[in-house]
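Hello Y.,

Per our agreement to keep a running log of every chain we model this quarter, I'm adding this entry. I've kept the format consistent with earlier entries: sequence first, then predicted structure.
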Amino acid sequence: MTQFPKHFLWGGATAANQLEGGFDRDGKGLSVADVMPGGKIRMSTLSDPDFEWEMNEKMYRYPNHRGIDHYDRFQEDLALFSEMGFKCYRFSIAWSRIFPNGDEQTPNEAGLAFYDRLIDTCVQYHIEPVITISHYEMPLGLVKNYGGWKNRALIDFYERYAKVVLTRYHDRVKYWMTFNEINSANEFPALSQGLVPSNGANDFTHIAQAWHNQFVASSKAVKIGHELDPDLKIGCMIIYATSYAMDANPINQVANLLQNQGFNYYCADVQVRGKYPAFRDRFLKEHGTSWEKLDTTVEDLELLSKYPVDYVGFSYYMSSCVDEVNDAGGAARGNLVGGVKNPFLESSDWGWQIDPDGLRIALNELYYRYQKPVFVVENGLGAKDVVEVDGAIHDGYRIAYLRKHIEAMKLAVNEDGVDLMGYTPWGCIDLVSASTGEMSKRYGFIYVDLDDAGNGTLDRSRKDSFEWYKKVISTNGEVLE
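Predicted structure for the entry above:
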């Protein structure tokens, strides 16, 4: 058998803060994404000790404010997804559309009504919604007034938010994820925890405390969801970067083991197994803190144990390579993951190393570690697309990237026995990059006429990969040419 399971969830993935726009419409409050400047200076600005989560429109552009105007054009976009044959669509709810400051007692009905319309349109097209409850867009008020996720008060605010959206939509939405790429705080806690140097990012105690609070909040969401409907599937979502030692030197092998444990498994172990890993104390010590410094309770640990997630969602874009001995090959960067350059791999336009075999390894490592279904909810190639005179976009490089990764998934399913739920390539429609705030870093099957300076018609057009992916879905992965 060379096909995927009969009910395999083919689709695509986006995030509210990167495509919706309408940042101040219908009662929406500001989110952390709304004050992140656009351009290659985005990450360095957020790392500046003087950054205080304030907008400076005289100095910076804020492309997330407009996104690609999905807020007004979602019906057009979903019609295109349906044309491709999507079985599912992974998107996120903008938390600050529902609770503008994050700490209100009563939700914003206009925000809830927008997602009613979005979900109903999915259902109309027989597309399963896959919703991320929090995807790099926590309300700015929770950062400014409470200090971000290091404050335990956010557990209750998230619980209230999760209860509202799960209660409202559970009759139409079966698949959920609690936090996007929760382990990204290993490298950059601004996106997922609201922590920058000015409010605690340089003290790993705050990062570890923020994780603990998120773990507890995630379990509360699982509890709410399962009490509403035991058939709901609520997963975690991590970045997974398959990691290699550069050579057989035992020093590099041990360094690679520790890299895997700290980056790939620390968060997932808690959310999937329901308890902290055995290496917890060593990991915290290596980062200059300890378990005793964290504010935790016996009740917290009981909740984690009782309400683990149902499946493991993860993003996979590239692998990483560890060399503690020689630091050979220069640096390689990508998706908040560092490491040395792997000489056996090619790189994207943005320096992300392309490694489809690493996806097969990731699927095996995750499935056999946790024995729960896995779901590739992000994977894709950020590239510079060229629009020809006739309007065509020939993105054969994207097709080649995706083909090789789907072939790797096929081997993991058919040869290795991995229980894989589905595949939602990232940025199925062009959107604002999370790491750089650029439009020129394109992932989509659908081209959006908008440039880095905000110029363009916002018109949508089909790339060559659109028809290719349509054929992949219609044949359930059988035809990849």
